[in-house]
Design goal:
The chain is about 35% helix and about 30% strand. By secondary structure, the chain is an alpha+beta fold. It folds into 2 domains: about 5-150 and about 315-335, Gcn5-related N-acetyltransferase (GNAT) (Aminopeptidase); about 155-290, Gcn5-related N-acetyltransferase (GNAT) (Aminopeptidase, 3-Layer(aba) Sandwich), CATH 3.40.630.30. Strands 1, 2, 3, 4, 5, 6, 7, 8, 9, 10, 11, 12 and 13 form a 13-stranded mixed sheet that branches. The longest helix is centred in the N-terminal third of the chain and has 23 residues, at about 100-120.
């Protein structure tokens, strides 16, 4: 039996789509229907929620964003410059299949989605960034280019002392020796979500680098996704905001989504070491398996992230189509 690929409506079918998202081990919070709708609004794209079915059984999800500006047409997942984590295809109900059946089902699902994208969107350029999707062969068999990227992941296991003991000596010292009367790290509120985003924006602007993420988008995710999905961790001293990290949380993983930039204030505290420690410690207490530091491709930042003794994990950028279209889209986003 072939895999039937069809589009679900993000309004009328939102509950059905979210049930599939929750059942797939290859998804993250940005797959949820509310998040897809917000990403589309933030990036001026159209979200298409593709689902594959074998009979009545859901076998895969593939959120795709259509970009149109004049003659330019693109298909993206995640959408361009949304600053969200990985998307792309995700599978359901394949864990118990023998390899031959799993291969066949994965290929039929992916090729069905690619056929839908070609017929309905006719993109000049396609770009998908995927993480927890292992079988990329159907993309290469259909003339897509696949390029690896990397992220750091900390396993949240053992005791709190075990976790901290795996840090570098300076990170351990920064956490253990921080005067408890000088700071407090807590989960904040919607206002703190905006503070974190604006702190990141200021950091980027000081470095003459573009930053497209809006505080409205981040706060809307915080308010519309289920409670605890977006967690703003903030560090304060005497009530003053020093810094923060926006964490996106799935059932198994915490993602270091935004924040953790070099603070502007001059204090005798390793603010980001403390923030990351509290994010990991609380995740361990709550039974979360992993802390994805979201990125290991910038040498100047890697040195900081590596102090938590993470392991290296790949993710992949999958592209096809006209070279340079992504640069034109980048230019349009800057104008917006």
């Amino acid at each position: 039996m072939s895999v039937d690929v069809r589009e679900l409506d993000l309004e009328t079918d939102a509950d059905e789509w979210n049930r599939y998202v929750e059942r797939s081990r290859g998804t993250n919070p940005f797959y949820r229907a509310e998040a897809l709708a917000l990403q589309a609004e933030e990036t001026n794209t159209t979200a298409h929620a593709l689902a594959g079915f074998k009979g009545q059984e859901a076998v895969g999800l593939f959120p795709v964003f259509a970009y149109r500006k004049g003659p330019i047409r693109g298909a993206f997942s995640p959408p361009p410059y949304a600053w969200t984590c990985y998307l792309g295809p995700a599978l359901l109900n394949v864990d118990k299949l023998k390899q031959r059946k799993a291969d066949r089902r994965t290929r039929r699902f992916v090729e069905g989605c690619l056929e839908w994208i070609d017929e309905e969107l006719s993109p000049m350029y396609s770009k998908f960034v995927v993480a927890e999707f292992e079988d990329l062969r159907p993309f290469t068999w259909n003339d897509y280019d696949v390029e690896p990227g990397y992220t750091y992941v900390v396993d949240l296991d053992g005791s709190e002392d075990d976790l901290l003991g795996r840090f570098s000596s300076d990170a351990r010292s920064n956490v253990r020796n921080a005067p408890e009367d000088d700071y407090v790290v807590t989960e904040g509120d919607g206002d703190d979500v905006e503070r974190i985003v604006e702190q990141v924006r200021t950091r980027y602007e000081n470095q003459n680098r573009p930053f497209h993420l809006s505080a409205w988008f981040a706060r809307s995710l915080y308010e519309r996704l289920p409670e605890g999905t977006i967690r703003p961790y903030v560090c304060r001293s005497d009530g003053e905001f020093l810094g923060g990290i926006l964490v996106a949380e799935s059932e198994t993983t915490r993602y270091r989504w935004q924040g953790g930039v070099k603070p502007d204030v001059d204090v005798d505290l390793s603010i980001n070491d403390l923030l990351d420690w509290y994010v990991m410690r609380d995740g361990l207490r709550d039974g979360i398996d992993r802390y994805d530091l979201v990125g290991a491709g910038v040498p100047s930042i890697n040195r900081y992230k590596a102090k938590f003794n993470p392991r290296l994990e790949p993710h992949y950028t999958i592209t096809a189509g006209a070279f340079g279209i992504d640069l034109l889209i980048d230019r349009y986003q800057k104008i917006r």
